[in-house]
Specification:
Beta-lactamase, 12 helices, disordered N terminus, 2 domains, globular, 6-stranded antiparallel beta sheet, 378 residues
Length: 378
């Protein structure tokens, strides 16, 4: 009897595996191994070591200059409580180009690399801007079908531009769901091939007519960028950002099994180096007299679009609805690089804040709270 039950179970299990592979869900096995079998319920800020990656190589590191009152003024109690309640790993404040406050929790430190998640979208857009500047991509108006001719044969595909992808106006058949393992984000994150997960998925509406935040859009942007530069995106990021910005550490950019960067997410770097990306915007793309990226392109990135109800630009979220205006890189679980121009300030927060409350425009309440607390305290 036991042998019959065992045999039946093995047959059922074999059939389940066969069906999983035949319907393209084999990535679920990898996902289970990297989450539940490691005691996690999903992606984490520390899971970079479980994926293949390319190194974004630093050049000559330039350490942050510390303010004369560095870490001498305690954070407001309400802010500290919020940071603790939201499982914060790091919290940094840079003002007037100097490190003003730096704090870590739960074993994280200044050399800890954590997952950027979707903050990488803004980095990808920055690199596209550099490729445009160097005439590797003609402009934001360039058709995507110039890079992948098959898009001419897909409904609405011939209308898709680089700018549509950067502004989240692509109109893809894509459901931005982080909890359903059978949907596109999980396949892109855990799957073997980003091309299989993202390319030629089709469209549900004409590009440039509707704002919808879609990780697939930034991955398509990454494919076009990769094709235009004739090197890995990580090598390009090293040459155009990490080295000229004087990053303190190498970073790691997760890839699929074919070496394509996950441009919708997954740059594993330190909070100090994330802060240097924010400073780039405050300095209008300059550092030490060297123009790293066009200030005009940075202005386009931080200019809110009408279709997003003035909440999104290109890779950046924007909040001009509060007393202290700000814009920011935003990644899953509350990874932020926040730029506050009127205070000449950059705020970095990393950690694990799940199920974040959001405003009517889809922006996390926590960012506006952090800006208000810090700006009024320093």
């Amino acid at each position: 009897m036991f042998l019959k039950i065992l045999k039946g179970f093995l047959v059922f299990f074999a059939l389940l595996i066969a069906l999983t592979y035949s319907f393209g869900y084999d990535y679920l096995f990898y996902g289970i191994r990297q989450t539940y079998l490691r005691g996690a319920s999903g992606s984490t800020i520390d899971d970079g070591k479980y994926f293949p990656s390319h190194t974004i190589t630093k050049g000559n590191p330039v350490l942050w200059e510390k303010d004369s009152v560095y870490n001498k003024k305690a954070l407001p109690k309400d802010l500290v409580q919020d940071l603790k309640n939201s499982n914060t790993a790091s919290f940094l404040i840079v003002k007037n180009g100097k490190l003003l406050h730096e704090e870590y929790w739960d074993g994280y430190s200044a050399i800890s690399k954590t997952n950027s998640f979707s903050m990488a979208k803004a980095v990808t857009v920055l690199l596209v801007g550099k490729a445009i500047e160097e005439k590797k991509i003609s402009s934001l108006h360039q058709r995507y079908s110039d890079f992948f001719e098959n898009y001419k044969n897909v409904e609405f595909g011939k209308d898709l531009t680089i700018g549509d992808l950067a502004k989240m106006e692509a109109g893809l058949k894509w459901n931005e769901d982080y909890s359903n393992p059978f949907l596109q984000n999980a396949k892109a994150y855990y799957g073997k091939s980003l091309e299989e997960a993202v390319l030629l998925r089709g469209f549900k509406r004409k590009p440039g007519t509707n704002f919808e935040y879609q990780s697939g859009a930034t991955q398509l942007l990454g494919f076009a960028l990769r094709k235009s530069i004739n090197q890995t995106i990580s090598q390009f990021a090293s040459e155009k950002l990490w080295k000229p910005l004087g990053m303190e550490q190498n970073a790691d950019w997760s890839t699929d099994e074919f070496g394509m960067e996950k441009t919708f997410c997954c740059i594993h770097s330190t909070s100090r180096d994330f802060a240097k990306l924010g400073r780039l915007f405050l300095n209008d793309g300059k550092l030490g007299g060297h123009q790293i990226i066009s200030p005009q392109f940075l202005n386009e990135m931080k200019t809110p679009t009408e279709l997003s109800k003035n909440a999104y630009g290109m890779g950046l979220w924007i909040n001009n609805d509060t007393a202290i205006k700000h814009y920011y890189f935003w990644g899953l679980h509350g990874q932020y690089i926040i730029i506050v121009p009127e205070k000449n300030m950059v705020i970095v927060r990393t950690g694990t804040y799940k199920d974040q409350p959001k405003d009517a425009k889809g922006r996390p309440h926590q960012v506006a709270f952090l800006v208000d607390e810090v700006a009024n305290h320093y």
